[in-house]
Amino acid sequence: MDNPVIIVGAGLSGLRAASLLTEKGIKCRVLEARDRIGGRVLSTSDLNRPDLGKFDLGPTWFWPQFENHIANLVKELNLETFEQYMKGEILKERFQIKPPERCVLKENSDEKWLRLTGGVQSLIDALADTIPSEIVELETRVEKIQLNESGNITVEAELSNGMRKKFPTDAVILALPPRLVAKHIEFSPSLHPNLITDIVKKPTWMAGQAKVVAVYDRPFWRELGLSGYVLSVVGPLEEIYDASPIKGSGALFGFFGMPPEARKKMGQDKVLKLVVDQLVKLFGSEAKNVKAIFYKDWSTDSETTVEEDLSPLKNYQSYGPLSVEGMWGKKIIFAGTETNSDYSGHLEGALLSAEKAVAEIINYRLKGVR
Protein backbone atom coordinates (compact mmCIF):
# COMPACT_ATOMS: atom_id res chain seq x y z
CA MET A 1 0.00 0.00 0.00
CA ASP A 2 2.66 2.47 -1.06
CA ASN A 3 0.59 4.34 -3.61
CA PRO A 4 -0.69 7.74 -2.50
CA VAL A 5 -4.36 8.17 -1.71
CA ILE A 6 -5.98 10.18 -4.50
CA ILE A 7 -8.30 12.96 -3.37
CA VAL A 8 -10.56 14.33 -6.09
CA GLY A 9 -11.47 17.94 -5.29
CA ALA A 10 -9.53 20.72 -3.55
CA GLY A 11 -12.44 22.25 -1.68
CA LEU A 12 -12.67 22.31 2.11
CA SER A 13 -13.33 18.54 2.38
CA GLY A 14 -10.49 17.60 0.04
CA LEU A 15 -7.92 19.87 1.66
CA ARG A 16 -8.93 18.82 5.16
CA ALA A 17 -8.58 15.16 4.15
CA ALA A 18 -5.15 15.89 2.66
CA SER A 19 -4.08 17.71 5.82
CA LEU A 20 -5.18 14.85 8.08
CA LEU A 21 -3.53 12.19 5.89
CA THR A 22 -0.30 14.19 5.77
CA GLU A 23 -0.40 14.54 9.54
CA LYS A 24 -0.64 10.73 9.81
CA GLY A 25 2.27 10.22 7.41
CA ILE A 26 0.04 8.83 4.65
CA LYS A 27 0.94 9.99 1.15
CA CYS A 28 -1.77 11.61 -0.93
CA ARG A 29 -2.39 13.70 -4.03
CA VAL A 30 -5.17 16.21 -4.57
CA LEU A 31 -6.55 16.53 -8.11
CA GLU A 32 -8.62 19.63 -8.84
CA ALA A 33 -10.38 20.49 -12.11
CA ARG A 34 -10.48 24.22 -11.35
CA ASP A 35 -7.52 26.58 -11.63
CA ARG A 36 -7.84 27.41 -7.92
CA ILE A 37 -8.36 25.72 -4.59
CA GLY A 38 -11.46 26.22 -2.47
CA GLY A 39 -14.32 24.69 -4.44
CA ARG A 40 -17.50 26.44 -3.35
CA VAL A 41 -15.50 28.64 -1.00
CA LEU A 42 -14.81 31.83 -2.90
CA SER A 43 -13.58 35.07 -1.32
CA THR A 44 -12.88 37.93 -3.68
CA SER A 45 -11.68 41.53 -3.71
CA ASP A 46 -11.36 44.45 -6.11
CA LEU A 47 -7.85 44.40 -7.58
CA ASN A 48 -8.02 48.17 -7.96
CA ARG A 49 -9.29 48.70 -4.42
CA PRO A 50 -7.81 46.00 -2.17
CA ASP A 51 -8.36 48.37 0.74
CA LEU A 52 -12.08 47.64 0.55
CA GLY A 53 -11.49 44.11 1.85
CA LYS A 54 -12.36 40.53 0.87
CA PHE A 55 -15.89 39.29 0.49
CA ASP A 56 -17.42 35.82 0.44
CA LEU A 57 -19.37 34.69 -2.61
CA GLY A 58 -19.74 31.22 -1.16
CA PRO A 59 -20.26 30.18 2.48
CA THR A 60 -19.85 32.96 5.03
CA TRP A 61 -20.59 31.86 8.59
CA PHE A 62 -20.13 29.17 11.16
CA TRP A 63 -21.80 28.74 14.54
CA PRO A 64 -19.24 27.77 17.23
CA GLN A 65 -21.86 26.95 19.84
CA PHE A 66 -23.10 24.11 17.62
CA GLU A 67 -20.15 23.36 15.32
CA ASN A 68 -17.20 22.16 17.35
CA HIS A 69 -15.02 20.85 14.55
CA ILE A 70 -14.72 24.06 12.58
CA ALA A 71 -14.44 26.09 15.79
CA ASN A 72 -11.50 23.95 16.95
CA LEU A 73 -9.84 24.00 13.53
CA VAL A 74 -10.09 27.79 13.27
CA LYS A 75 -8.49 28.05 16.70
CA GLU A 76 -5.79 25.51 15.79
CA LEU A 77 -4.90 27.46 12.64
CA ASN A 78 -4.85 30.78 14.57
CA LEU A 79 -7.43 32.42 12.32
CA GLU A 80 -9.16 35.62 13.34
CA THR A 81 -12.94 35.72 13.61
CA PHE A 82 -15.57 38.33 14.34
CA GLU A 83 -19.30 38.28 14.97
CA GLN A 84 -21.83 38.98 12.27
CA TYR A 85 -23.19 42.50 12.72
CA MET A 86 -26.79 42.24 13.92
CA LYS A 87 -27.32 45.46 15.89
CA GLY A 88 -30.22 47.70 14.93
CA GLU A 89 -33.54 47.08 13.27
CA ILE A 90 -34.29 44.73 10.40
CA LEU A 91 -36.29 45.57 7.30
CA LYS A 92 -39.18 43.55 5.90
CA GLU A 93 -40.09 44.18 2.28
CA ARG A 94 -43.56 42.81 1.58
CA PHE A 95 -44.86 45.09 -1.15
CA GLN A 96 -43.29 46.35 -4.36
CA ILE A 97 -44.97 49.79 -4.17
CA LYS A 98 -44.72 50.38 -0.41
CA PRO A 99 -41.67 51.23 1.68
CA PRO A 100 -40.18 48.46 3.83
CA GLU A 101 -41.23 47.96 7.43
CA ARG A 102 -38.74 48.43 10.26
CA CYS A 103 -38.79 45.74 12.93
CA VAL A 104 -36.84 44.97 16.06
CA LEU A 105 -34.76 41.81 15.81
CA LYS A 106 -35.14 39.53 18.79
CA GLU A 107 -31.66 38.81 20.06
CA ASN A 108 -30.55 35.31 20.93
CA SER A 109 -27.55 35.83 23.20
CA ASP A 110 -26.54 32.16 22.91
CA GLU A 111 -26.32 32.15 19.13
CA LYS A 112 -23.16 33.53 17.57
CA TRP A 113 -22.74 33.85 13.82
CA LEU A 114 -19.00 34.02 13.26
CA ARG A 115 -17.16 35.23 10.18
CA LEU A 116 -13.50 34.84 9.31
CA THR A 117 -11.34 37.91 8.88
CA GLY A 118 -10.28 37.86 5.25
CA GLY A 119 -13.20 35.62 4.31
CA VAL A 120 -13.56 31.84 4.38
CA GLN A 121 -10.71 31.69 1.86
CA SER A 122 -8.40 32.32 4.83
CA LEU A 123 -9.41 28.89 6.15
CA ILE A 124 -8.73 27.30 2.77
CA ASP A 125 -5.32 28.97 2.50
CA ALA A 126 -4.36 28.01 6.05
CA LEU A 127 -5.27 24.37 5.41
CA ALA A 128 -3.30 24.41 2.16
CA ASP A 129 -0.26 25.59 4.14
CA THR A 130 -0.39 22.38 6.21
CA ILE A 131 0.31 20.16 3.19
CA PRO A 132 3.18 20.09 0.68
CA SER A 133 2.22 22.37 -2.20
CA GLU A 134 3.37 19.88 -4.82
CA ILE A 135 0.68 17.33 -3.93
CA VAL A 136 -2.09 19.62 -5.21
CA GLU A 137 -2.51 19.48 -8.99
CA LEU A 138 -4.83 22.13 -10.44
CA GLU A 139 -6.57 22.00 -13.83
CA THR A 140 -6.49 18.23 -13.56
CA ARG A 141 -9.93 16.87 -14.39
CA VAL A 142 -10.56 13.30 -13.28
CA GLU A 143 -12.56 11.47 -15.94
CA LYS A 144 -12.07 7.77 -15.28
CA ILE A 145 -11.38 5.49 -12.33
CA GLN A 146 -10.53 1.89 -13.14
CA LEU A 147 -10.19 -1.13 -10.85
CA ASN A 148 -8.41 -4.18 -12.27
CA GLU A 149 -8.73 -7.83 -11.28
CA SER A 150 -5.76 -7.54 -8.93
CA GLY A 151 -7.45 -4.81 -6.94
CA ASN A 152 -5.24 -2.01 -8.24
CA ILE A 153 -6.83 1.37 -9.02
CA THR A 154 -5.88 3.78 -11.78
CA VAL A 155 -7.24 7.31 -11.82
CA GLU A 156 -7.13 8.94 -15.24
CA ALA A 157 -7.32 12.72 -15.65
CA GLU A 158 -7.20 15.28 -18.43
CA LEU A 159 -4.81 18.20 -18.02
CA SER A 160 -5.35 21.77 -19.19
CA ASN A 161 -3.12 21.17 -22.23
CA GLY A 162 -5.27 18.25 -23.39
CA MET A 163 -2.76 15.62 -22.29
CA ARG A 164 -3.88 12.73 -20.11
CA LYS A 165 -2.23 11.51 -16.95
CA LYS A 166 -2.70 8.33 -14.93
CA PHE A 167 -2.34 8.02 -11.16
CA PRO A 168 -1.99 4.59 -9.50
CA THR A 169 -3.60 4.37 -6.07
CA ASP A 170 -5.07 2.03 -3.49
CA ALA A 171 -7.95 4.30 -2.47
CA VAL A 172 -9.82 7.36 -3.75
CA ILE A 173 -11.61 10.04 -1.73
CA LEU A 174 -14.24 11.73 -3.89
CA ALA A 175 -14.42 15.15 -2.23
CA LEU A 176 -16.77 16.85 -4.65
CA PRO A 177 -20.55 17.09 -5.07
CA PRO A 178 -21.92 13.58 -5.66
CA ARG A 179 -23.86 14.60 -8.79
CA LEU A 180 -20.60 15.77 -10.41
CA VAL A 181 -19.21 12.29 -9.82
CA ALA A 182 -22.19 10.71 -11.58
CA LYS A 183 -22.00 13.12 -14.52
CA HIS A 184 -18.28 13.45 -15.16
CA ILE A 185 -16.45 10.33 -13.90
CA GLU A 186 -16.58 6.94 -15.59
CA PHE A 187 -16.03 3.90 -13.39
CA SER A 188 -14.76 0.59 -14.67
CA PRO A 189 -16.29 -1.69 -13.52
CA SER A 190 -19.44 0.39 -13.09
CA LEU A 191 -20.76 1.41 -9.70
CA HIS A 192 -23.76 -0.50 -8.38
CA PRO A 193 -27.02 0.91 -9.79
CA ASN A 194 -28.39 1.51 -6.28
CA LEU A 195 -25.36 3.65 -5.46
CA ILE A 196 -25.74 5.67 -8.65
CA THR A 197 -29.41 6.27 -7.82
CA ASP A 198 -28.43 7.47 -4.34
CA ILE A 199 -25.76 9.75 -5.80
CA VAL A 200 -28.14 11.41 -8.23
CA LYS A 201 -30.70 11.99 -5.47
CA LYS A 202 -28.32 14.27 -3.56
CA PRO A 203 -28.78 17.87 -4.74
CA THR A 204 -25.63 19.97 -4.82
CA TRP A 205 -25.69 22.52 -2.04
CA MET A 206 -25.77 26.12 -3.31
CA ALA A 207 -25.84 24.95 -6.93
CA GLY A 208 -29.02 26.79 -7.90
CA GLN A 209 -28.14 29.88 -5.89
CA ALA A 210 -26.45 33.16 -6.72
CA LYS A 211 -24.89 35.68 -4.39
CA VAL A 212 -24.12 39.37 -4.78
CA VAL A 213 -22.05 41.75 -2.66
CA ALA A 214 -22.34 45.54 -2.94
CA VAL A 215 -19.42 47.41 -1.37
CA TYR A 216 -19.45 50.97 -0.01
CA ASP A 217 -16.94 53.29 1.62
CA ARG A 218 -18.62 52.72 4.98
CA PRO A 219 -21.62 50.85 6.46
CA PHE A 220 -23.89 53.89 6.30
CA TRP A 221 -27.06 51.92 7.19
CA ARG A 222 -25.75 51.50 10.73
CA GLU A 223 -25.99 55.26 11.15
CA LEU A 224 -29.70 54.89 10.36
CA GLY A 225 -30.14 52.37 13.16
CA LEU A 226 -30.34 49.44 10.73
CA SER A 227 -28.63 46.07 11.02
CA GLY A 228 -28.45 45.52 7.26
CA TYR A 229 -30.60 42.42 7.67
CA VAL A 230 -33.53 42.34 5.24
CA LEU A 231 -36.26 39.83 4.46
CA SER A 232 -38.04 40.40 1.15
CA VAL A 233 -40.79 38.65 -0.76
CA VAL A 234 -40.56 40.99 -3.76
CA GLY A 235 -36.80 40.78 -4.44
CA PRO A 236 -34.76 40.28 -6.48
CA LEU A 237 -32.87 39.58 -3.23
CA GLU A 238 -34.91 37.67 -0.66
CA GLU A 239 -32.32 37.85 2.15
CA ILE A 240 -29.75 40.59 2.74
CA TYR A 241 -27.07 40.81 5.42
CA ASP A 242 -24.33 43.18 6.50
CA ALA A 243 -21.16 41.87 4.86
CA SER A 244 -18.84 44.60 6.08
CA PRO A 245 -15.30 43.72 7.18
CA ILE A 246 -14.53 44.20 10.84
CA LYS A 247 -13.32 47.71 10.04
CA GLY A 248 -13.09 50.02 7.05
CA SER A 249 -15.54 49.65 4.19
CA GLY A 250 -19.19 48.67 4.33
CA ALA A 251 -20.87 45.91 2.36
CA LEU A 252 -24.24 44.26 1.91
CA PHE A 253 -24.70 40.80 0.48
CA GLY A 254 -27.83 39.04 -0.63
CA PHE A 255 -29.28 35.73 -1.75
CA PHE A 256 -31.61 35.71 -4.72
CA GLY A 257 -35.23 34.65 -4.73
CA MET A 258 -35.09 34.82 -8.52
CA PRO A 259 -34.72 31.32 -10.04
CA PRO A 260 -31.66 30.42 -12.18
CA GLU A 261 -33.59 30.47 -15.46
CA ALA A 262 -34.80 34.02 -14.83
CA ARG A 263 -31.31 35.26 -13.94
CA LYS A 264 -29.87 33.70 -17.05
CA LYS A 265 -32.56 35.11 -19.32
CA MET A 266 -32.23 38.60 -17.86
CA GLY A 267 -28.43 38.72 -17.99
CA GLN A 268 -25.96 39.89 -15.37
CA ASP A 269 -26.14 43.63 -16.10
CA LYS A 270 -29.92 43.80 -15.69
CA VAL A 271 -29.80 41.57 -12.61
CA LEU A 272 -27.27 43.84 -10.93
CA LYS A 273 -29.28 46.95 -11.81
CA LEU A 274 -32.30 45.40 -10.10
CA VAL A 275 -30.12 44.67 -7.08
CA VAL A 276 -28.92 48.27 -6.74
CA ASP A 277 -32.47 49.56 -7.26
CA GLN A 278 -33.66 47.31 -4.44
CA LEU A 279 -30.86 48.49 -2.13
CA VAL A 280 -31.75 52.13 -2.86
CA LYS A 281 -35.40 51.45 -2.04
CA LEU A 282 -34.38 49.77 1.22
CA PHE A 283 -31.51 51.95 2.44
CA GLY A 284 -31.92 55.28 0.64
CA SER A 285 -30.10 57.19 -2.08
CA GLU A 286 -26.69 56.59 -0.53
CA ALA A 287 -26.99 52.98 -1.66
CA LYS A 288 -26.37 54.22 -5.22
CA ASN A 289 -22.74 54.96 -4.34
CA VAL A 290 -21.47 51.44 -4.91
CA LYS A 291 -17.67 51.26 -4.94
CA ALA A 292 -17.53 47.65 -6.11
CA ILE A 293 -20.03 44.91 -6.82
CA PHE A 294 -19.34 41.19 -6.95
CA TYR A 295 -21.65 38.56 -8.37
CA LYS A 296 -21.41 34.79 -8.50
CA ASP A 297 -24.12 32.67 -10.06
CA TRP A 298 -23.30 29.14 -8.96
CA SER A 299 -25.95 27.73 -11.30
CA THR A 300 -23.70 28.61 -14.28
CA ASP A 301 -20.58 27.05 -12.72
CA SER A 302 -19.97 23.75 -14.50
CA GLU A 303 -17.58 22.65 -11.73
CA THR A 304 -20.46 22.93 -9.25
CA THR A 305 -23.79 22.44 -10.95
CA VAL A 306 -25.43 19.82 -13.13
CA GLU A 307 -28.75 20.22 -14.91
CA GLU A 308 -30.70 18.45 -12.16
CA ASP A 309 -29.55 21.12 -9.68
CA LEU A 310 -31.45 23.90 -11.44
CA SER A 311 -34.72 22.71 -9.91
CA PRO A 312 -35.67 24.08 -6.47
CA LEU A 313 -33.82 22.37 -3.62
CA LYS A 314 -36.29 20.01 -1.96
CA ASN A 315 -34.56 16.73 -1.16
CA TYR A 316 -32.93 17.73 2.11
CA GLN A 317 -33.78 14.31 3.51
CA SER A 318 -31.53 12.66 0.92
CA TYR A 319 -28.33 14.12 2.38
CA GLY A 320 -26.07 11.73 4.25
CA PRO A 321 -23.39 9.07 3.74
CA LEU A 322 -23.07 7.12 0.52
CA SER A 323 -22.55 3.42 1.10
CA VAL A 324 -20.08 1.80 -1.31
CA GLU A 325 -20.23 -1.99 -1.37
CA GLY A 326 -19.02 -4.84 -3.53
CA MET A 327 -15.72 -4.64 -5.40
CA TRP A 328 -15.51 -0.85 -4.92
CA GLY A 329 -16.04 -1.14 -1.15
CA LYS A 330 -13.18 0.50 0.83
CA LYS A 331 -11.68 1.55 -2.50
CA ILE A 332 -13.66 4.72 -3.04
CA ILE A 333 -15.00 6.94 -0.27
CA PHE A 334 -17.32 9.89 -0.69
CA ALA A 335 -16.72 13.13 1.19
CA GLY A 336 -18.23 16.61 0.95
CA THR A 337 -20.94 18.47 2.81
CA GLU A 338 -23.75 16.60 1.02
CA THR A 339 -22.55 13.34 2.59
CA ASN A 340 -22.94 14.51 6.17
CA SER A 341 -26.36 13.99 7.73
CA ASP A 342 -26.21 16.48 10.60
CA TYR A 343 -24.47 19.50 9.04
CA SER A 344 -25.12 19.15 5.32
CA GLY A 345 -24.67 22.45 3.53
CA HIS A 346 -22.40 23.79 6.27
CA LEU A 347 -18.64 24.10 6.50
CA GLU A 348 -18.91 21.84 9.53
CA GLY A 349 -20.44 19.12 7.36
CA ALA A 350 -17.57 19.37 4.88
CA LEU A 351 -15.02 18.94 7.68
CA LEU A 352 -16.85 16.06 9.35
CA SER A 353 -17.11 14.19 6.05
CA ALA A 354 -13.36 14.59 5.49
CA GLU A 355 -12.55 13.30 8.95
CA LYS A 356 -14.82 10.31 8.41
CA ALA A 357 -13.21 9.53 5.05
CA VAL A 358 -9.70 9.66 6.50
CA ALA A 359 -10.74 7.44 9.42
CA GLU A 360 -11.96 4.86 6.90
CA ILE A 361 -8.67 5.03 5.00
CA ILE A 362 -6.67 4.54 8.20
CA ASN A 363 -8.82 1.63 9.40
CA TYR A 364 -8.55 -0.07 6.03
CA ARG A 365 -4.78 0.30 5.96
CA LEU A 366 -4.42 -1.03 9.49
CA LYS A 367 -6.43 -4.10 8.55
CA GLY A 368 -4.29 -4.47 5.42
CA VAL A 369 -1.12 -4.48 7.53
CA ARG A 370 -2.52 -7.28 9.67
From TrEMBL:
- Domain Amine oxidase as annotated: residue spans: 106-362
Q: Which family does it belong to?
A: Belongs to the flavin monoamine oxidase family.
For this protein, the record's SUPFAM superfamilies field holds: FAD-linked reductases, C-terminal domain (SSF54373), FAD/NAD(P)-binding domain (SSF51905)
Protein name stated in the entry: Amine oxidase
Any Pfam family matching the protein? Amino_oxidase
Q: Which InterPro entries match?
A: Amino_oxidase, FAD/NAD-bd_sf, Flavin_MAO
Q: Which organism is it from?
A: Gottfriedia luciferensis
